[in-house]
Write a structure and sequence with these properties.
This protein is mainly alpha-helical. It has one domain. 52% of the residues lie in helices and 2% in strands. α1 packs across α12, α2 packs antiparallel against α9 and α5 runs antiparallel to α6.
Length: 262
């Protein structure tokens, strides 16, 4: 079973892990930024708003990124919380309003000012002995959440048991580098990444027998990640993009995935 599963997973990766299958995915916004200092900010925005209908996600991310152009890094360094609130007054993406978005952006600015970049903020507490990135992620999320006005659900907190799907998605984008993930971060091993757990990946994890848990929380994300580690110990989130195409693209049905494992 394991040998056959690895063969199928590799087939999906070879077939679908290509730029042509990215749209519609907020990941596409990162491709426009060659400078990692800009890319990591755009990645944080795109991943934080990656919930709800994909059409609305793309619309919201495009609106925010446009306001920060041409260089989000320089824009943030020259912004105050008050100026951000004024710029994004009236913004809304489902449950998030302009104040929460401004808090996220200002938290990113504070982290960049304090550590030099979001990358350095994340690796500040990352130890070579850590088998996963949970500890470093907790520190990073707390730094983004350190301003008196909080970004709310835009920054999930690992210490509360959240699977932190959107943060793990951001980390996949920034740490991995292949035909889809642009990468750019240093000092973080892809072997420590955690699966961005959404309903599609949860069902896949159940189908592959990686978990039997009913909660979509951090523990379940870790179990599914360990399941994929059986096949790619050095890169457990390798198949995330190709497998989640079945839940994102209208021309790909989850039935197309299930039939391979029945």
């Amino acid at each position: 079973m394991q040998k056959n599963t690895k063969k199928i997973l590799e087939k999906f990766y070879t077939q679908y892990n290509k730029r042509e299958f990215v749209h519609p995915d907020p990941l596409e916004f990162l491709f426009f930024y060659r400078d990692v200092k800009d890319r990591e900010i755009v990645g944080l925005i795109a991943s934080s708003l990656a919930y709800g209908r994909v059409e609305q996600i793309l619309k919201s991310v495009h609106r925010v990124v446009q306001m920060l152009s041409p260089t989000p890094y320089e824009f943030l360094l020259n912004s105050t919380f008050e100026s951000l609130c004024e710029i994004f007054k009236g913004f809304r993406h489902r449950f998030a309003d302009g104040c929460q978005l401004s808090s996220l952006l200002f938290g990113a600015k504070k982290a960049i000012t304090k550590f030099g970049s979001l990358n350095r903020c994340f690796t500040h507490t990352l130890s070579p002995d850590d088998s996963k990135i949970v500890h470093a992620m907790t520190f990073f999320c707390n730094e983004l959440n350190s301003y008196r006005v909080k970004p709310g659900h835009l920054v999930a907190l690992p210490q509360k048991g959240s699977a932190c799907k959107r943060m793990n998605l951001f980390l996949r984008w920034m740490v991995r580098r292949d035909d889809v993930d642009p990468g750019g971060w240093e000092g973080v091993s892809r072997s420590k990444l955690i699966i961005p757990l959404d309903i599609h990946m949860y069902r896949i994890g159940l189908r592959l027998g990686f978990t039997v848990r009913k909660q979509m929380d951090m523990q379940t994300a870790l179990e599914i990640t360990d399941g994929f580690k059986q096949f790619v110990p050095h890169d457990p989130v390798k198949y995330d993009f190709s497998l989640t195409r079945f839940g994102i693209r209208k021309d790909m049905s989850s039935d197309d995935f299930v039939r391979y494992f029945t």
